[in-house]
Design goal:
heterodimer, A: 110 residues, mainly beta, six-stranded mixed sheet, three-stranded antiparallel sheet, 9 strands, 0% helix, 44% strand, B: mainly beta, seven-stranded mixed sheet, four-stranded antiparallel sheet, 52% strand
């Protein structure tokens, strides 16, 4: 159950777009369309932002979008805003019936 | 509104035991798989355990197998995590979360477990 690989940090200016990658294997990210993304502000619980690779829960801004190619999933935040500054984690179902999270990415808004 | 509230965290010595609880409101727990996820201080999220709707099946991450047991009491709308043989590396905030279909939503606010002598 090795963690999925994410960049440690991504930085952008207000209004810009940024993309966070999440790389796994054919036993998790590549094998299932069950990738989800979570936003976590300091001291708070994680919040679901994207599920099933591309779907947004109600209440989540359409500035957040997800995609997948092979063993790598991506989260794109467009029109970056100060409130988007947070940690982001991907997650995937895996073939052994467990769930695996990414290493986490700290998004900084300049 | 669906709410999950964890409790039972605290300071415990290495080798000790602790039982966490997660009480749900706004939903009938029996309809859902549920999970525990933990986060060590300053670190990432790690999936710990899951249980099916009627409590007849559960599975754990390799790191806690044989030491942690997840259970539920649907009549009380409450989830439990029995943690035995605790180690320093089990120190973390423990979150319960609903399985909303291969995704975790919502999450509780978390309860801190500190394993230290």
């Amino acid at each position: 159950q090795s963690a999925l690989t994410q960049p440690a940090s991504v930085t952008g200016s207000p209004g810009q777009s940024i993309t966070i990658s999440c790389t796994g294997t054919s036993s998790d990210v590549g094998g299932y369309n069950y990738v989800s993304w979570y936003q976590q502000h300091p001291g708070k619980a994680p919040r679901l932002m994207i599920y099933d690779v591309t779907n947004r829960p109600s209440g989540v801004s359409n500035r957040f979008s997800g995609s997948k190619s092979g063993n790598t999933a991506s989260l794109t935040i467009s029109g970056l805003q100060a409130e988007d500054e947070a940690d982001y984690f991907c997650s995937s179902y895996e073939s052994r019936g467990a769930h695996v999270f990414g290493t986490g990415t700290k998004v900084t808004v300049l | 509104e669906v709410q999950l509230v964890e409790s039972g965290g605290g300071l415990v010595q290495p080798g000790g035991s602790l039982r966490l609880s997660c009480e749900a409101s706004g939903l009938g727990l029996s309809n859902y798989w549920m999970h525990w996820v933990r986060q060590a201080p300053g670190k990432g999220l790690v999936w710990v355990s899951r249980i099916n709707g009627d409590g007849s099946y559960s599975s754990n991450a390799d790191s806690v197998k044989g030491r942690f047991t997840m259970s539920r009491d649907n009549a009380k709308n409450t989830l439990y995590l029995q943690m035995n043989s605790l180690r320093a590396e089990d120190t973390a905030v423990y979150y319960c979360a609903r399985d909303a279909g291969w995704r975790f939503d919502p999450w509780g606010q978390g309860t801190l477990v500190t394993v230290s002598s």
